Amino acid sequence: MSNDLRLILFDVDGTLADSQGAITSAMAAAFAGAGLAVPTRDQILSIVGLSLPLAIAELAPGQPADTRAAVVEGYKAAYKTARLAAGAGHSPLYPGAAETLAALNAVPELLLGVATGKSQRGLDALIEAHALRCFVTRQCADHHPSKPHPSMVLRAMAETGVRAENTVMIGDTSFDIDMGRAAGVQTIAVDWGFHPAERLGADHIVTDFAELRDLLLNGLWKG
């Protein structure tokens, strides 16, 4: 394995967790509850990765601030209600995700982290639901500007003491890849998420977790 790679940062929704159904259902409930037309599935998935207020602003640009705020709160309530009812089944991990995280975490030289547009509460709940104890740094929307601002990646590197040349950001949306690029780190796009991977301009594209695991463990990520 290459000794260069030290910090591996993962997006969550669309990268580790299959949350399409959870997000689209909660968004539909929020818009309907505010008396607004529900965005299409594609429209909703296009904003996944942004912080929630910015996502709602993108989906309802002509609405006044109080209406957008009501949609934000409606989304939070609908998402939480569904999560409490479904538990781990609310946002299941993609096949191979847990095994890949375990394999990477078993390498002492590697540090794992997350950089997500989820709230702290949502991130903590997902980590608890899936018993993901491997992340040494957890960056979320509550404490940072929305992606693609590089703040999350920069803070993760500062917390772990790892330099940009020894860090990689893994995600499924343009917001993830643009964030990683803005922070000066290597980027890997997964092709099972919310944005077409071939359009993201990442340094690498992977088609499953086995390929991602090999890329990271065999030192091919800089190739």
Describe what this molecule looks like in 3D.
43% of the residues lie in helices and 12% in strands. The protein has two domains: 7-18 and 92-217, Rossmann fold (3-Layer(aba) Sandwich), CATH 3.40.50; 20-89, Orthogonal Bundle (DNA polymerase, domain 1). α5 packs parallel to α9. A six-stranded parallel sheet has the order 3-2-1-4-5-6, sandwiched between helices. The two termini are 13 Å apart. With 223 residues, the protein is an alpha/beta fold.
CATH class of the largest domain: Alpha Beta
Main sheet strand line-up: 3-2-1-4-5-6
Number of domains: 2
CATH architecture of the largest domain: 3-Layer(aba) Sandwich
Based on CA atoms alone, the radius of gyration comes out at: 17 Å
The helix/strand series, from N terminus to C terminus, equals: EHHHHHEHEHEHEEH
Seen as an oligomer or otherwise, the chain set is single chain
- Look at the helices and sheets and give the structural class: alpha/beta
CATH topology of the largest domain: Rossmann fold
| Strand portion | 5-15%
What is the tally of beta strands? 6
Which consecutive residue ranges, at least 5 long each, have pLDDT under 50? Answer: none
Q: How is the secondary structure organized here?
A:
Elements: E1 7-10, H1 20-33, H2 41-46, H3 52-59, H4 65-86, H5 97-105, E2 111-115, H6 120-129, E3 135-139, H7 151-160, E4 167-171, H8 174-182, E5 186-190, E6 204-206, H9 209-217
Parallel strand pairs: 1-2, 1-4, 2-3, 4-5, 5-6
Helix pairs in contact: 1-4, 3-4, 5-9
